[in-house]
């Protein structure tokens, strides 16, 4: 992941002003890419290699306008990162139909519109190598109560991404997904950075085998890898970046975290691995 690895490339990141998106924009730009940011809020960092476009990804024409602005300044984009998302927390009887539709307008239709504009301009420019990386969530496969809209919309993102991998592979475009687990965005986001209580954060962290919350940089590094030439044969993948929390039930509900390792080396034995 050396500086300059993406030199000469142009990328568009939707939802890039805060949290994971901000980290992704920074990682791509630090690697030499020229990056456009499409978000409802302006990108907060003053960088000559970042172009901020304030618009709603769900509005037809918004992404095309951002891509046109990028082309005018730096040339056609060969990288698209779909990070823009609406993620309300509401149960069945709490969520209005309008709120439900808005989640899908942003998370699913917004992704479709972004991919459609990106691929059309990619073809028109005669490019031969491109990347689409979409951000999903572990809850697409392990949902939580009051999260039906977000989880199901991200499950749709994963299915759409796999479909596009098959459609666009012959054009030289790979389509992959990064699925974060619990990520602590405090210090990296101006949009609801404290929506989780300390008790909830502790509970979420206790379920992670690596023993820590994820950081925005963890997601950004995975996205950056999928944009590099070294990832050329990675297509239709869903890469979980969650410290292993999606592997299974790490501990039973109410069980206190242990300071002892689950596995230990048995003294004097050859293979030496025994279950605790």
Automatic annotation (TrEMBL):
<protein>
    <submittedName>
        <fullName>NAD(P)-dependent dehydrogenase (Short-subunit alcohol dehydrogenase family)</fullName>
    </submittedName>
</protein>
<comment type="similarity">
    <text>Belongs to the short-chain dehydrogenases/reductases (SDR) family.</text>
</comment>
<dbReference type="Pfam" id="PF13561">
    <property type="entry name" value="adh_short_C2"/>
</dbReference>
<feature type="region of interest" description="Disordered">
    <location>
        <begin position="247"/>
        <end position="276"/>
    </location>
</feature>
<dbReference type="InterPro" id="IPR002347">
    <property type="entry name" value="SDR_fam"/>
</dbReference>
<dbReference type="InterPro" id="IPR036291">
    <property type="entry name" value="NAD(P)-bd_dom_sf"/>
</dbReference>
<keyword id="KW-0560">Oxidoreductase</keyword>
<dbReference type="GO" id="GO:0016616">
    <property type="term" value="F:oxidoreductase activity, acting on the CH-OH group of donors, NAD or NADP as acceptor"/>
</dbReference>
<dbReference type="GO" id="GO:0030497">
    <property type="term" value="P:fatty acid elongation"/>
</dbReference>
């Amino acid at each position: 992941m050396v500086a300059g690895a993406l030199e000469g490339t142009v990328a568009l990141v939707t939802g890039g002003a805060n949290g994971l998106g901000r980290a992704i924009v920074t990682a791509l730009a630090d690697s030499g890419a020229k990056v456009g940011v499409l978000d409802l809020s302006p990108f907060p960092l003053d960088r000559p290699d970042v172009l901020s476009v304030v618009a709603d990804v769900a509005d037809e024409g918004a992404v095309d306008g951002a891509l046109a602005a990028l082309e005018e300044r730096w040339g056609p984009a060969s990288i698209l990162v779909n990070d823009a998302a609406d993620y309300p927390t509401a149960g069945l009887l709490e969520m209005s139909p309008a709120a439900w539709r808005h989640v899908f307008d942003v998370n699913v239709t917004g992704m479709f519109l972004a991919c459609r504009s990106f691929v059309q301009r990619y073809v028109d420019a005669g490019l031969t190598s491109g990347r689409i990386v979409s951000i999903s969530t572990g809850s697409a496969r392990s949902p939580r109560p009051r999260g039906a809209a977000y989880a199901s919309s991200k499950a749709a993102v994963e299915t759409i991404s796999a479909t596009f991998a098959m459609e666009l592979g012959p054009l030289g475009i790979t389509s992959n997904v990064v699925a974060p687990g619990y990520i602590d965005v405090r210090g990296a986001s101006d949009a609801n950075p404290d929506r989780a209580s300390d008790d909830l954060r502790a509970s979420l962290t206790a379920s992670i085998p690596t023993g820590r919350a994820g950081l925005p940089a963890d997601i950004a590094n995975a996205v950056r890898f999928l944009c590099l030439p070294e990832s050329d044969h990675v297509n239709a993948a869903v890469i979980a970046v969650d410290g292993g929390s999606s592997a299974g039930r790490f501990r039973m509900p109410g069980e206190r975290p242990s300071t002892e390792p689950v596995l230990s080396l048995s003294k004097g034995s050859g293979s030496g691995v025994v279950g605790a």
